[in-house]
Fold these 4 entries.
Entry 1:
Amino acid sequence: MPNLGSARDAFASKVIYSLHKRDETARSLGIIIEAAGMGWCKIKMLVRDDMVNGHALAHGGVIFTLADTAMAYASNGENNQTFAQHCQITFISPGKRGEELTANASEISKTGRNGLYDIQITGQDGRLVAAFRGATRTVKGQTDPSLGEAPKS
């Protein structure tokens, strides 16, 4: 369980909210941040009518985007620009029209410029909708240069 009171979590939260403010795709999908810290986040999205496929279920691409967004937020908390390098998703059960989906992202490993993240997408009733694993790569530059360097431990 993350230490919600740590200076590193507070810093990461600022970076993540700054990134979200500039994330036009996430905001247009109605993705909101419920909680965030260093190497983790919890975000939510309501499955709207324009997000369902021909079977009247949440479109897989929308679910993937929710998971990818969670990974982006969890991986950028140190304020170093980090991007998806490779991702895979397994759909377990369908998301439903009108249902709020939650993405819980957690850092599994971070070594040098490479990161590994697991994201679970769940439905309102707690069932697993999808399991996502993604690899990230950190490049030069800061996510939000106005925030400076992340505090050490």
Note: The CA atoms of residues 30 and 128 lie 21 Å apart.
Entry 2:
Amino acid sequence: MCPYPWYQVMRLSKDKKQQRYQLVIYDKEHGVYPSSRFFATTPKTVRKWLMRFIEGGYQALADLSRRPLYSPRAVPEDDARHIVKLKSKYKRLGADQVKALEDLATSSKTIRKIWRENGVSSRKRRKKHITKQNLREIKKQFALFERVCEDTKDLDDIPEYYPQMMAKNLPKVQYTFREISCGVQFLGFSVERSLTNSMLFAGYINEHLRKYDLIVENGIRQTDNGSEYIGSWSAKEPSAYTLKIESEKLVHGTIPPGAHRFQSDVETVHNLIEVDFYEIERFADRRDFMEKAYTYQLFFNLERPNTYKENKSPWQLAKEKRPDLPKEALMLPPVDLDELLDKKIANPAIGGYDVSSAPWLNFSIPRSSPLKRCAICKMCCIEWFA
């Protein structure tokens, strides 16, 4: 005889069907009453499981659903069908959003349950590579320099560069201009981040683009909401940077607060230049820094293939959009904004921003002139003018 009551055995059992099957087999051999005494249960329970086994076999020994046949609080059929149709309308929205948009009385949990029961609950997330591919196709449609991102990069958090920066008075902030359809980048450097430097950098770039007829009217120059671009957060008038952009009939667009992914194009090159340039190069002084920065920029714009843009360089992509584009349009030297500001202060009569920040480089340099080779591209700067 079983020392434990049948109810206790069932409550602790992990496989109730197996226990009930043993009861049925014993009953067939010994009868109802001996089985009830042996398993410490009632004859009624033995007969119940014997009849279920005869009618439905082993699977019939499982517990039956205790769900009521009728629920007075159940969602009406018409409302359930309407909720199912809403899923096809709001394909990728969740139950909470659909409930709010349609002002439904049904709870979000019930909405999800109805979708699940009707096989429409799957909300497939768009694959990351598909999203990137779609964005690349959209960016291809923009004209050259129609959409541009600008941002700054702090250089004092790069371990390989920091000791050189402090010992040799090298720039502490990088100003980056990046065109998003082809990936062209231009650089500026300074010892501080400021609205004045951003304005000078914008003017320097605008002068160069105007020279090669590359300013697209109503094109967007996008930045974050840093004070170096928008000025004071409480300012009631456009900043000097904004006015400089709008003077060329461009639009200064800012990203939503905290939405740093909107600046992904320029943030990407910030990571690349840190790995390709700052962590590798060693600089003798500030002049040597500007030389090597120019060489790297030439390498990036004219030679470096971009795996996310058909494995082509910015120069190749730009030529596809503008076959008549001269190579010099992508060869703007990086600007030393501190030096440029000193010149503007020393001589206020000087107009324009088309001032070379690298006076040691000149477009009239003979091909035989010796120049240092870059550790990145292994090419002499003079070779770019061929």
Note: The chain has three domains: 6-61, 77-117, 140-385.
Entry 3:
Amino acid sequence: MPDFEQLKKELAKPEVTLQLLWEEYSDRCRLSGLKPYQLTQFNSNLQ
């Protein structure tokens, strides 16, 4: 489960986008053998 509170803080930084955060999250999940949220589900949990 992503830390959505931390991700919200990351979004406040310049040059950080939802797409970038999702790509990093999904890469970490795949390396760990986990199935990541799809982009739309990830985005809806951040809002």
Note: The two ends are 16 Å apart (CA to CA).
Entry 4:
Amino acid sequence: MANTDLGYLLHSRPYRDSSVIGDFLLQHHGRVSLLYKGVRKAGKQGAKGRLLQPFSPLAVGFEGRNELKSGRLLEAAGPSVFLVGAQLYSGLYINELLVRLLHREEASAPLFAFYQQVIQALRTEPIEPILRRFERQLLAELGYELTLLWDAEGEAIRSQQHYLYVPDQGFVPTSPLTLEQPLRTRCFSGEHLLAIERHAYHDSEVAQAAKRLSRLALAPHLGDKPLHSRELFKQLSP
């Protein structure tokens, strides 16, 4: 029996002569991989294949019990969100995080709704705050929520104190002067942590600290394989 759902294409790759394997984020099924056969041919099937674009709401139907399921229905379910430049690369970064980190077929209605809000916001709002909020939301979804109000010992974060970020433990009070250089990249001021908790990114130092913290928090889950989308951002550098 076929399932139907609303979703977005996160990533696609050709399969054999005329088919496509797509990774989707679906409202009621989470991340799923679907094989759509013949959609790179001319004619009616080819028209269906042209719908396989990121940031476009899609009605999809599929069946099967394996990790790779057979795609059936594929229809537009609303207007596409057109992103360009840094907006586009940011959207692709978000999609790549979801493909790399989400477990298969674990639905989360709040994450799906947040994803919809994020790709709309990328068109009109400052990008960096959007990415930091999404990274925090995704970490929480994975069970690794960043707690920025309390240190690893359960004491309130103090603005004048410095803290060492330790994955799976949290923030340990420290002094930057006692740390070797490699560890200083994991050191944050309490003032910056409290500002990050408030999403107060108007200060450039807070914004840079938030980006550094997100990378440190995501690194253990991403592993050593680099993110392709980060390479795209380098094309924007003068």
Note: Residues 204-222 form the longest helix (19 residues).
